[in-house]
Amino acid sequence: MEHYVSRPDTIVIAGVRTPGSEQADTLVRLPAGKGSKLILAKIDATSNNDVPQAMSELDQRHNIQHLDIVIANAGIFTPTAHQKMGNMNLSDLQSHIDVNAYSVVRLFQGVWPLLSKSLKPVFLLNSAGAGTLGGMKSFAHFPLNSYAASKVLANFVVLRLHFEYPDLIAFAVHPGSVVTENRTQAAKMLGVEVEGLSVNDCVSGMMRIVRSFFPVDG
Ligand SMILES: NC(=O)c1ccc[n+]([C@@H]2O[C@H](COP(=O)([O-])OP(=O)(O)OC[C@H]3O[C@@H](n4cnc5c(N)ncnc54)[C@H](OP(=O)(O)O)[C@@H]3O)[C@@H](O)[C@H]2O)c1
Questions:
Q1: How far is it between the farthest Cα atoms of the chain?
Q2: What is the C-alpha to C-alpha distance for residues 108 and 60, in angstroms, rounded to an integer?
Q3: pLDDT tens-place string over residues 74-92
Q4: Three-state SS across 155-215?
Q5: pLDDT-based confidence at residue 190 (cuts at 50, 70, 90)
Q6: pLDDT tens string 82-141
Q7: CA dihedral for 180, 182, 188, 192, sign (positive or negative)
Q8: In the chain, where are the structural domains located?
């Protein structure tokens, strides 16, 4: 958010669960570049109605006729949920899939009417290294089953988008191991060391990838 809203002439839509919250207010107060602004949209990733409702408000209240880049970032990782397959609780699997994977379908279906009006539409999923079938061996020692399975499904969705919508730049990235509040808490509960990229370094790397699709205006 901070990165994009600090650019000139950029409108950033931040999907948040509770627009009136203090946390949401800190987004609105982020320093904006010349001609830029941040608009809050109420989006709970588990809602079937929030994204279509938010899109209709963007159009009707803010006169926004198209979107250029959509980032599916919302995600949960509940450390206590992570058990070996023999002990997996299906309700944990379901909740991870709901937030981490079904939400990607909900988001895409809701934003596509505005995103498809962009000259170069981008749909980016903040995925996870654990969500790879081919690379499962490197995560074999961690039973991150509910989280990883949900990210595998989310990756599938994005790969299908790539094939089904030839004009859409749809891709999933593993952000790296990033030291966020959630990650620090999860690492502590799993008894592993908290190390990794800073949020700034992670965002810079991800933005470099997005910029590579826009070589002229960056
Ligand atoms: N950190 C890492 O090392 C790492 C590694 C691989 C992948 N990822 C992925 O990167 C993304 C961001 O993770 P993070 O580490 O930054 O974790 P985080 O700080 O916990 O961020 C997760 C975000 O998802 C939002 N969210 C959760 N449930 C939601 C719901 N039902 N509706 C709407 N928003 C919801 C949270 O909103 P609230 O602020 O309202 O809680 C929060 O903004 C996730 O998809 C995660 O799987 C992170």
A1: 55
A2: 20
A3: 999 998 888 899 999 999 9
A4: HHHHHHHHHHCCCCEEEEECCCCECCHHHHHHHHHHCCCCCCECHHHHHHHHHHHHHCCCC
A5: confident
A6: 889 999 999 999 999 999 999 999 999 999 999 999 999 999 999 999 999 998 998 888
A7: negative
A8: 43-211
In the block, which residue shows the tokens 């002229």? Answer: 216
156 Cβ neighbours under 8 A, 6+ residues apart: none
CA–chain centroid gap for 98, Å, is 14
Domain 43-211 = CATH 3.40.50.720: yes
For residue 165, indicate whether it is catalytic. no
Q: Check if the beta carbon of residue 76 is closer than 8 Å to that of residue 99.
A: yes
User: 121 and 161 in contact (C-beta within 8 Å)?
Assistant: no
Cβ neighbors of 124 (< 8 A, separation 6 or more) are 69, 70, 71, 72, 170, 171, 172, 173, 206, 210
10 Å CB burial of residue 126 (0-12, 13-18, 19+) is buried
Q: Which residues line ligand 1 (CB under 6 A)?
A: 17, 23, 44-46, 73-77, 99, 126, 128, 174-175, 177-178, 180-183, 196
How many Å apart are CA 199 and CA 157, to the nearest integer? 26
Per-residue confidence band for 216, with pLDDT thresholds at 50, 70 and 90? low
| Block residue for tokens 């899109």 | 55
Question: Active site includes 127?
Answer: yes
